Amino acid sequence: MLNDRLKLKNIGPLTEADIEFGDLTILAGPQATGKSIFLQFLKLILDASPILGFLNEHGLNWHRNIKDFLELYLGEGTGSIWQPRQSQILWRGSQIDLETFIKSRKQRGSEKSFLIPAQRVMAFSRDGWFRPFNDYRTGDPFSVRISARSCAG
Predict the structure, then answer these.
(1) CA distance 102 to 145
(2) pTM score of the predicted model
């Protein structure tokens, strides 16, 4: 995604976030400031077709309504983060109308991005028990493995 740029305005806690991606891009900041929402919108831009296909495959009907879609995609209670006349998405300098974008995607295709929200990470402590998220330290090593089979396509 070298030189790709995503700008979000007035989406949930994000007043404005403008990120140009490089070889390595790190989002850091206090809890509940919009980092995960930003990444989920990036994934939506890159993977709308497989996301819609997944919802359809599992019988999750969003009635072609953005609020209902966001409730399914981002989680219960998140439908109101999108404000139709105020929220904006700019991808690579072009504005995206979220409603048109979502409704126009074909419901098939392969994923282009891989996102694991930090609160979903599971790690073990040295004594073999699960570690709570707030117990992570900056020096802790983590690795993510994805099999070649799941990348095929």
Answers:
(1) 30
(2) 0.75
Residue (of 34, 29, 27, 48) closest to 81 by Cα position: 34
Distance separating alpha carbons of residues 50 and 108, to the nearest angstrom: 5
DSSP structure string for 23-51: SS------TTSSHHHHHHHHHHHHHHHHH
The SS3 assignment for 72 reads helix
List per-residue pLDDT tens for the chain, 153 residues long. Answer: 446 899 999 999 999 999 998 888 888 888 888 988 999 999 999 999 999 988 988 899 999 999 999 999 998 899 999 999 999 999 999 999 999 999 988 777 788 887 665 555 556 666 666 666 566 666 665 555 544 444 444
